[in-house]
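help with this record:
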Amino acid sequence: MAENKRRVCTAAVSEALTYLTGEVREAVGRFCGDIANIPGGQTSAGEAAGCQNAGTAVGAEPEEIRLRAGLPLSVTADGKNMFLTKDGRATVLGDRVICRQSDMQYAVRTLSEGSIYRYMPTICEGYIITSGGLRVGICGRSVYSDGHISAVEDFTALNLRIPHNILGCADALYRRLSDKLASVLIFSPPGEGKTTFARDLALSLSRKYRVAAVDEKCELFPPGSNFADGAGMLDILRGYRKADGIEIATRTLSPEIIICDEIGAADDIEAILSVQNSGVRLVATVHADDFADLENKPNIKRLLGARVFGLLAGLSRRGGRGVSLRAVG
């Protein structure tokens, strides 16, 4: 499991580095150490004592790499945020690498393969999916036309999210579902691993059941990745809006289970309610801090009131990765 996770991270970091230049690339490469095959040293004891990244050494596996024009480069690893020095050490007040406008321009130009226009539809929704399957959050100055964002210019922030594939992380829930299927709502705060967990569950379930993954933002099974390796009866609907994908999958693919990431919009809820009595089970994820927080979300509360889900699964890293299950009765 650890070897597979590291292999996926290595490929993603290597791709991410191709979109960076200058001091930004050097700092991230050295921080990642042997992952990027770039030599580096350890975070010094003095700096470690004064930063959120206390104890994290060069060679860490990043979760996010963030560029902000005119502001310090930052990374997130093991759920902790930190700034980097040029030589890849974590710091709070030290010689932080500052992202220049030229760094932003290089990254956007490379991410869009020299054609921002081609990627503009998803840029207007806040992200780019690279040919290698990396998802990059992107924002800047928006341009509106007829009440909708028609373009984004003067890019100010990029968030390169490094995907992780952790085979077996959903085994406990899979064992619960393997003999008796039920619809499941997986929830956690952002960054706790919902997508990784849902992906692993989809792979496991697809070896026994017909599974349709409605992958609107291409995060469950990014194009160009090997995340679907080992799948069985898995149909992937990439780029479909969840409401459309759920309806099309139910009508044309005869799935036993539909899996989708980050539900919550009114259209999502209507589509889910419309197939509730079709016999298809649903596995979905949503942002929420705890069980009580779910009921504070009006659209999710509608699904809970309609008894769409038989199980609620809460994920948390606190005290180690864990899953809390609650039957809905």
Observations:
- The first strand starts at residue 64 and ends at 68.
- DSSP finds eleven helices and 14 strands in the chain.
